[in-house]
Every structure is written in C-alpha cells, then in structure tokens.
Amino acid sequence: MGGSVPVVHHSRSPVDRGTVGAGAPPDVTGPAPPTRHLAGRRFLARAVISFEVVWLALWPPLAVVGVFLCLAMLDVPQRLPGWAHVALLVVVVLAAGGLLLRGLLAGGLPDDRAADRRLESQSGLTHRPLAVLTEKPSRADNLSLALWDAHRARSVTQIGRLRVGGPRPGLARRDPRALRYALLLCVVASLGIANSDAPSRLYTAVTPSLPPPLGVPSTRLQAWITPPAYTRIAPIFLKAEGGTVSVPAGSHLTVNVSGDRTAPVLWLNERSDPFTSLDHSSFQADLDLTRGGVLTVKRDGTSVAVWTLTVIADQPPTIGWGGNPGRQPHSQETRLPWEVSDDYGVTNLQAELHLRDRTDAPPLLVTIPMPGGSAKSAHGISRPDLNAHPWAGLTVTGRLIGRDASGQTGASEERAFDLPERPFHHPVSRSLIAARKTLSLHPDDRGDALEALDELLQRPDLFAGDLGAFTALSGIYYELARNHTGSAVSEAQEMMWQLALHMEEGQTEQSARSLEAARQAARDAMDKAQEQPNDENRKYLAKKLEELREAIDRHMRALMEEAQRNNNVMPFDPKAKQLSAQVMETIAEQAEQAAKDGRMADARQQMAQLEKMLDQLRNARLQGDEGKQASSKQQRGKRQQSVVQDLVARQGSLLDHAQRRGSKGPSARDPAAEREADNQVQRALRRGLGELMQQFTDLTGEASPALGEADQAMRDAATSLDQHEDGVAGERQQQAIAALQKGNQELGQAMARMGQQPGRDQEGEDGQDGDGGEGTMGMMMLDGHQGDGRGTGPLTGSPDEAGSEGRDPLGRVNPRSMTDNADATVPEERERQRTQAIQEELRRRGADRARPRQELDYIDRLLKQF
Predict the structure, then answer these.
(1) Which of 7-21, 208-222, 450-464, 823-837 has the highest mean pLDDT?
(2) CA 464/CA 400 separation, integer angstroms
(3) Which of 238, 219, 205, 220 is nearest to 84 (CA)?
(4) Which residues contact 459 (CB under 8 A, 6 or more apart)?
(5) Residue 17 predicted with pLDDT over 50
(6) Residue 624 and residue 787: Cα distance in Å, rounded?
(7) What is the assigned CATH class of domain 632-770?
(8) Is the pTM of this model over 0.70?
(9) DSSP label at 759?
C-alpha cells in the first residue's frame, strides 16, 4: 500500500506505433510530478479516517464512563451493598467495552481505495482520476493499450495538488440533541461538589467492600470518633458498612477489629497506620484526624470498611462591639458593650485599649468575664472601674479580642472614646490628677508636671496642717526631678493617685484599703502554704502576716487621728471586748511566729481570731456610715430582682396579646399593628434582659442558666412574631416567663450565698462594683443589721464555731466537712469524662473476642445503654 504508484508501460515495435498513427500520444516513461507524493497523502488520509472511526466508536463508552463518574462523585456507589456495588462495576465495564468493540467493528480500517476517495473528495477531483493509476484495461490489444495510456495521461494532468483535510467524524449527526454537552456539564458539576474529595471518592467507587469468603472467620469492627473536648460533641460512631461522616478538626479516631489473626491496616488516603495487637485476634488503631479523605480498614489486601471523612476546620470567633463604649450613665464605670459568636464557643474576651495621642504606649488589657464560661453566641456589657488608671480622663482607642477553645482569635473594629475619671473636689487632688494626665501623654517631658507640683508646694495652706501629705508631695516632686529612669514616671503617678485619694477622702479610707489588700494577701499566702507546706511558702506567709500587722497598726493610727480631728471617740463594737491595736498586734505577731515555726494549725487559729476582730472593727465603722458600703451588693441584688419581676409582668402582657390573637376573639386594635408593636416590645425586653444577665454575672461572678434560657425563648418569640405565628410565640413567651421566674430564684440564692461569705468578695474579674474604701472585705453584713455587730458568716464566732459550719477559720469550704448547706456544685465535666472513659473501656473489652460469650453479651448490653 505504500511506495510509488506502479505505471504500466507497453513497448511496441515501430510498425505497431505506425499503425496507431503519427498523432498517437507518446509513451509515458515515469510517474507524473503530481503523483510523486501520493503514498504519503494516502497514509495521512488513512490516519484521518481511522481517527474518525475511533472517535465515533469511543463516544458511547465515554458516555457510560461519564455517567458512572457523576455517580461516583455523588457517593452513590459507596452507599450500595457490596454485591450491588460489584454488579454496578460489572455493568459499567461490559457496557463500555461492548459499545467500544461495536463501534470499531462498524467503522473498520480504511484501505487505499478509501484513502483515494477521501483525497479525491477533499481535492475536488471528478471522475475518480486516482483510480486510473491502479486500474488496467479489460482488453490487452495494442489499440486498447494506446487508448488507456492516453486516458491515464490526461487523468494525471487533472490531479494537481492533493489535500487530505481535517477529521470530520460527524458526531453532530449522531447526537442531534447535543446530549454530550449536558453530560459534560454534569461531570463538571459533580467534580465541583466533590471538590478535594474527588480522588478519594473515585477510589472508593472502584473498590467495593466484599464479604469474606466462606470458611474465613467473620471480622467484627467497631469504630468511633471522639471530637475535641471544647466542642462538647458526643462521640460519633461509624457504621461498619461504611458511609460519609463530617467531624471537627482535631478529632480522635479509634478502631477495634477482631475475628482473625491477621493484623489489619488503617489507611487514610495514601497514609497507612498499623493496628496495635490487643491479643491474638483483636487489634486497635488510633488516629488524630487533621484532614479529610477516604478512611479504609484493610486486611489481607481486602477492604473491611470504607468511610469518606470530611474534617471541618474550626473557624475563628466573630467579635464585635454591642454599642458605643464610654462612660456608664450615672456612674464612674467604663461601659464596654460586646457581642461574640463562635462555632464552639468563646472562652476568653478582653478589651485592648491604646492611648490615642501616644500610640507607642503599652496597651491596657481589660478582661471581660463570659457568661457561662464558653458561649457560642452571647452579648452583654462589662463595667470595669478604671478610675485609678493613669489614662482615666484621656481619649483611647479600643478593640475587643476574643479567643475560642482551640486558640483562634478574632477582633472587632477599633472605637475611640474617653475613659471615665473620678471627679475630685479638693484643689490639691485636682492639680495632682491634671499633672498625672500630663505625664501619661508626655512621659519624657516632666517640666509641666514638675511646675504644677512646685505650685502646690508653694501653697502649704491647702494641706490644712496635714504634714504627712505635704511630705508625700515633696517626695513625688523629687522622685520626678532626680530619678530619670522610665519607672520613675509610673511610680510617681501611683503616688499622685494615692495622695489625691488621701486629700479627697482622708487617711482613714486609704489605710482601710491597704488593710484589706494585706488581709487578702495573707489569706492567699495561707492557702498556698496549706497546699504546698514547704519552708519557702511558710516564710512567704510569715512575711505577709508581718505586712498585715503593719497595715493594722497604720489603720488604727489613722482611726485615732480621725477621732482626734473630729473630737469624737473611736468606733467601738460592744461585742469587741478587747478591740485595741495592742491586742490585734499581739495576735498578728503570734500568727507570724507560728508560721515561721511551721505550726500551721496555730497560725490558722490566730488568723481566724484576727479576722474576727477586724470584722468587728469594720462593722463598728459602718455604723457611722449607715452601712451603705456593706449593703451595696444587697441593694443591687434587690434592684435586679425588681427588674426581673418587671420583665415577668411585661412578658405576661405580651403573652396575653398573643393568646387573644390566637383565639381570634374581638380586639380593639388591628391584629397586625398590635403584633408589630409587640414584636418591638419583645426585642426591647430581650435587650434589657441581656444587660441584666451581664449585671448578674458582675454581681455574683457566675452566669445564670435560667436567664440564658429566657433570652433564647425571647429570641424565638420575636422570630415567631415576625412570621405571624402567634401560637408559637405564645409558647415561647410562656417559656420565657418560667425561665425568668427561675432566674429570680437563682438571684436570691446567689445573694444568700454572698451573705454567708462575709470574708469573700463576690466581684467579677474586672471589679466593676468597688464599694468605696472597704475593698474586697467590705461586705460583712448583707441582711441590713448594721448596728448589732453580728455577721452571718463563720468569721463572727470562734474558730471552733467556724469549723462546725463546714468551713475553715478563713471562711473557706472544708471538703472534709461538706454539709447540705455547703456551696457544692455538680462536677458535670468530670462526670462526662468518667462516663466517656467507661464507654471506651467497655468497647476495648468488647473488641476482645477471646472473652467468654456470656461476658461479651453482658458488655454489649451495657454499651446499648450509652
């Protein structure tokens, strides 16, 4: 079929040629130029024809494969039983192969005649001139041969340049409805749905799970996935027949396989992990899941189970301002409204504040307590007291930063606002605070501050004979003038604040603050010495007790000076038989010495007596101040209870409206207008409840689950009102009323617990509710009996009495003497972990098929309970 075209030549004698005549065409001695490349053109023509035949033959099996690919990307074959999966694969292979064979046989392979026909048609030749080159005349006489030679010569001259042309399979004629494009679109769409799981899904689609042959021991498989603890999601159990499952990132996979001595292998995509042998026929594998894919358990090369895993990455929290930050109305506190959301809950929230006019200053971080500790969606208002900070009264830019349990952070946009400051009326205090602000803005330029301090030093009459305050002012001046280190400014600012408070409030309040701080430090040191009884902690406790003794001495001197200035007697509690500085100093020295000697029991006893006397002293001082500092929390709690009762009443009114509309009874108002008005009121009540929840957290240091349920019910009620579902809205409003009433009870119980712990401060972390000069220990009596000197906590009696109440001498709960009235909480997290551990142990034992059948049945019954 290749090579040059053979041309038939006939040699004739001169007589023969003369017979034809002088006008006969000359004999052709070689191939004409247009036919020299005929063999190459025929080869190209055969290749094009072959491509057209193969393409037409391939399209039907490709369509079958495309349909199977779409099904594979949608996980259809993986969901079929093993035998059905195998049958589907057999059908696909046979159909594709049969259609391909049929198409190839129908088209056939092209020969030279087919190649010539294509060349003639593509080159525009008529009368089939290429056939003349290979054909022969039917008669072999001289005349016929001469005529044939002449005809062939004329045909060759007509051939010209031969053209092959491009392939034209004619698929459009076979598929007039263009279904091939619809199939292509389906394939692309299914690949988009599978996304990164496409390779794994294709693999599982062509590898069915088959049951073991007869005579092979059956394999028992148990697999479960434990999500991370912070998700609070129960373990996810995988079906032995496989399937698709979505799990959070960081989950832990456990697979138990038993029933054969051959160790299985765990495959996740291309990575393999061996199983650990539990016994001769039981194996276990553990794997931390950080990415998705095809999870396969194989034994002897056969797939025991196949799952398609999708690992859901943890998203960063969404943090935002719930309003404009700034001063809390009718208060000196800073108002920080916030709102957060996260897929598994926000665990930490803080406000990061920067001084606007001094961007290089280190930020001020304010921790915001979260209701419930880890809320998926929450909002509230934090009210920290930042009056003592050097930036008080200056403009700051702040943003909220939240962190979820997995460590991811989110931040809000920045807001600019002025930090609230405490108003001062004493001229010395006002000048000190102004100089303090100047140092905050320009710490490297102390000239203005020194000038202001010097002006005060020129006015000793402003100190009203308070030599100690005047001396302190001189010390601040020389600290700034002579100490050029960076810490001198912050130390001077702290001394300015203390001196301003002293001039505004008096020495008594300042010494009371120092005394409360010393008491708290001594209590913390006592806790640490009890937990870790070593020499270092005992020395630290002795040091703190010495500081407490010095603070008591300073406070008693301040009380005496105040009494002398006011021509009054020192506060006295009738039950404090030996309430004097000498007695308290003696007890403090005894406690200090006991701590140094390692006699912790004696130190605790002396500390308890000292605490009792200090409480009696404080109660006596509260008599002259109408007990407003001691009862501030009680009053706030009562106000919050009143707010809850008002919310219940207003919610009840909305419930009446919803029930009336639901009954379709006569109404003086248009139902649609009334529903819209009720919706607005419902949302306003929810906003008020959100602020109340934050106040509850600030007051008690803990969140109210009942108020959280009420918030959810109010939100659902508002949604139902939007959808004109009065019946559903009424049900949610009833739930909100019940939850509010329960929250009122929780508030009362929290107030009662605060009344039982006079030696503990119940404030939140940000200390929003400072009670003036009494600090952390200023809540002795919450029941309103300010004048009798009797408290409600264990510190009002003897140490023995304290112990009889189930608390140690410092007012802490004694775990060895818990009573029904103790502040006990249910360890839900510990119980959950214990339950999970029991489940895992039962599954481990259940996977050991070597155990007796009776024991295995018992374990299975236990597992069903979970």
Answers:
(1) 450-464
(2) 46
(3) 205
(4) none
(5) no
(6) 9
(7) mainly alpha
(8) no
(9) T
